[in-house]
Amino acid sequence: MDALKLTDVSYVYPDGTRALEKMDLTIGEGERVALVGPNGAGKSTLLRIIAALNFPTEGTVEIMGEKVTKKGAERLRKHIGFLFQDPDDQIFMPTVWDDVAFGPINMGLGAEEVKDRVRKAMRMAGIEGYEERVPHHLSCGEKKRVAIAGVLSMKAPILLLDEPTANLDPQCRRDLVKILDSLSETVVLATHDLSVAFELTDRVIVLRKEKKFDGSPRDLVERADVLTEASLELPSLLRMVSKYREKSGRRFALPLTVEEALKIMLAEESRQ
Question: What are the structural domains, with CATH classification, of the chain?
């Protein structure tokens, strides 16, 4: 069964602004997909449509094989865990424990099940010991962890992540990437950070109101035309290696990780 399916989806804001055009998209269970593109490309709008928070102006959306309608949207939203870009939009309870437990409690789960889910989610998010802390006194990175724990406690099979690493310092970003990389659920993340997309997903969709590219990270890095059209820039490591390949005339695939880049450098060194 497909986790998500969009057919001919378009979205127009009340002021007449067209945010999405004729989107066809199928995402399988357990798949990890990155949505990338410039500001205004429609990434957040698409996530909200997938989550049945907004409804398409045209076209249809299916979640776990069932068509989304306004009448059935609330029930289908239980399949979705949504991490908002700004954790302050998601955190609103007086303590961290209350925030993480909010979803399971509202699902009608028993007290022991709620406790078990909260403990496991907080452990996965790396915030054990934060139970009685006040969420709004936490750093941005800590708030992100609390928001993620709240999403994980719901045990939704589909996770939607809107700019999950935005505004984080390098260590917080690295910690968050490790948390997200450990997940087994279907994941769709919107990001400006191509390095995050390459680390966490094996499929990248480039948006600019319509789908400009849908394929592997390894194919995308070779598509200078798509990157330019979508105002995207390769991570600095890839830009450096790309320049070396161009200047040296060598033929090799661009690396997606530091480890791959190191292998290329050692191979080139051994040839000299």
Answer: 2-233 (3.40.50.300), 235-272 (no CATH)
